[in-house]
Specification:
The protein is α/β, with parallel strands linked by helices. It folds into 2 domains: 79 residues, no CATH class; 244 residues, Vaccinia Virus protein VP39 (Rossmann fold, 3-Layer(aba) Sandwich), CATH 3.40.50. Helices cover 33% and strands 27% of the residues. The chain is built from 14 helices and 15 strands. Strands 9-8-7-10-12-14-13 form a 7-stranded mixed β-sheet, with helices on both faces. Strands 3-4-5-6 form a 4-stranded antiparallel β-sheet, covered by helices on one side. It has a two-stranded antiparallel ribbon with strand order 1-2. The radius of gyration is 21 Å and the shape is globular. The protein binds 2-acetamido-2-deoxy-beta-D-glucopyranose (2 copies). The site of one 2-acetamido-2-deoxy-beta-D-glucopyranose (NAG) has 9 residues, from helix 13. It holds the Pfam family Spermine_synth.
C-alpha cells in the first residue's frame, strides 16, 4: 500500500533537492516499508550513526518526520509525526496507529486518516446523535462498519438504547482498536454491545431482528474497496430498508462535502438515498483531520422533525454524560447548507448502482491485487 508514497517520493525528491535542502528531509521521511518499524522511532538511537542522507537520526530531524497522505490525484497533505505506535496488515486492509503532535493518536486504514483522537468527537457525534435524537424512542441500533468503536460509544451514551449491533468485516481492525484506543474501552466492555465480524450486507440479510436506527460508518467507496455495494440503491432498497422498523432512521457518512469535493460522492449518495426514502436530510461539519468538510445523509419514511428545543430536551433526558460538539441548535444549523452545496444536492441526477459506482481518490487492497 505504501507504493504510492514511494512513487511520490521519487517524483518529488529530485525537484526539491534543487529548491530547498530543508524540505528534502520532510519528503524523505514519507513512509516506506523500512520506516514502518517501531524501533526506528525510539528516541535513543545513536545520534551519530546516520550515514544515510535520507534518514537522519538526530532529534532535529526526528522533529521533521512527516506523514504524507495523497488526498486526490493533485492534492496531498502532510502532518508531523512523533512515532508509529502500531501497524498491522489484515486480509482486507492496512491498519496503523500514529502518534502526532497536532491530532494526537491517528488511526490510518489503507494509508487514509480514519479518525484522530483530538477531533473524532465531531465526526462521531454528527454520525450518530442526530439520528438517535430525532427518533422518538430508539432502542436498537445496527452499525455497519464502525470497528473503531467510537460510533458504538456514541450510541451507548443513550440510556434507553438496549442493544447496539456493530458489524465490521475486519476482525483485525476491531481487535486493534479494542486494544489501542483507550477512549472506547468502556464502550467495548458495555454489555449492550454485540459485535459481529461479517460483511454488513450478509449480516443484515440474515438478521431476524429489525432496528430503530441503522448507521453506515463505512470507508468511502473506493475502487477495489470492501464496502462499495453498501452505497448502492439496490442495497438500500432490498437489504437495508426492510430491516428498519416502521419509524426507523437510516444515516450514513457520505464522504467529503467541501466546496471543491462535494460532487464526488456526497451528492450522489444523497440522490441515491432520495430514491429510496421519503424524507432525506443532508448535513455537514468541518473536520480538521479530514482536511475538509464531511457530509452525512439521514433518511426515513416518517417525517423528520428538527426542533432545537426538543433536541435539547432529548439530550438532557436521554444522554449519559455529555456531548462535546452538538446541541439542538448546532444539529439544526448543520442541515442549513450554503447555496453551492444545496444547489448541487438538488441538481444531482446520479444514482449509485453496482454497475455505475462513484469513488473517491485511491484504491483498496483488492484493486492492488487485481
Ligand atoms: C557525536 O559526534 C560528536 C562530534 O563528532 C562527538 O563529540 C559526540 O561524542 C558523538 N556522540 C556519540 C553519541 O557518538
Ligand atoms: C459551504 O458548505 C460547505 C459544506 O458545509 C463547506 O465546506 C464550505 O466551507 C461552505 N462554504 C463557506 C464559504 O463557508
Amino acid at each position: 500500500m505504501w507504493g504510492f508514497l514511494v512513487a511520490a517520493f521519487s517524483v518529488l525528491y529530485i525537484p526539491l533537492i534543487v529548491l530547498d535542502s530543508e524540505q528534502i528531509d520532510v519528503i524523505s521521511s514519507g513512509f516506506t516499508n523500512s520506516d514502518f518499524q517501531e524501533d526506528d522511532y525510539n528516541a535513543d538511537d545513536d545520534h551519530n550513526s546516520s550515514s544515510d542522507h535520507h534518514h537522519h537520526h538526530d532529534q532535529r530531524h526526528r522533529d521533521n518526520e512527516w506523514f504524507e497522505e495523497q488526498l486526490e490525484d493533485d492534492l496531498k497533505w502532510s502532518f508531523s509525526l512523533n512515532s508509529v505506535l502500531h501497524a498491522v496488515t489484515s486480509q482486507f486492509q492496512d491498519i496503523a496507529l500514529l502518534d502526532t503532535p497536532r491530532f494526537g493518536k491517528v488511526l490510518l486504514i489503507d494509508g487514509k486518516m480514519q479518525s484522530s483522537e483530538n477531533d473524532e468527537f465531531v465526526y462521531h457525534e454528527c454520525l450518530v446523535q442526530p439520528a438517535l435524537l430525532i427518533h422518538d424512542d430508539p432502542k436498537t441500533v445496527f452499525i455497519m462498519g464502525g470497528g473503531e468503536g467510537s460510533t458504538a460509544r456514541e450510541a451507548l451514551k443513550h440510556k434507553d438504547v438496549q442493544k447496539v449491533f456493530m458489524c465490521d468485516i475486519d476482525k483485525v481492525v476491531v481487535d486493534f482498536c479494542r486494544a489501542h484506543l483507550t477512549a472506547n474501552q468502556e464502550a467495548f466492555h458495555d454489555e449492550r454491545l454485540h459485535i459481529a465480524i461479517n460483511d454488513a450486507k450478509d449480516e443484515l440479510e440474515k438478521s431476524e431482528e429489525k432496528f430503530d436506527v441503522i448507521i453506515g460508518d463505512l470507508a468511502d467507496p473506493l475502487e477495489g474497496g470492501p464496502c462499495n455495494d453498501l452505497y448502492t440503491k439496490s442495497f438500500y432498497e432490498q437489504v437495508l430498508k426492510p430491516k428498519l422498523n416502521d419509524n426507523g432512521i437510516f444515516v450514513t457518512q457520505a464522504g467529503p462535502a467541501g466546496i471543491l469535493s462535494h460532487k464526488q460522492i456526497f451528492t450522489p449518495i444523497y440522490n441515491t438515498i432520495k430514491h429510496v426514502f421519503k424524507y432525506v436530510i443532508a448535513y455537514t461539519a468541518h473536520v480538521p483531520s479530514y482536511a475538509d468538510s464531511c457530509g452525512w445523509v439521514l433518511a426515513s419514511d416518517e417525517p423528520l422533525r428538527l426542533n432545537v428545543e426538543q433536541l435539547n430536551n432529548r439530550i438532557q433526558e436521554r444522554i449519559k454524560g455529555e456531548l462535546r460538539y452538538l446541541d439542538g441548535a448546532s444539529i439544526v444549523s448543520s442541515t442549513v447548507l450554503n447555496k453551492t452545496i444545496q444547489t448541487a444536492l438538488l441538481e444531482e441526477t446520479h444514482v449509485i448502482t453496482k454497475e455505475n459506482a462513484r469513488f473517491i481518490h485511491g484504491h483498496g487492497l483488492a484493486a492492488e491485487v487485481a
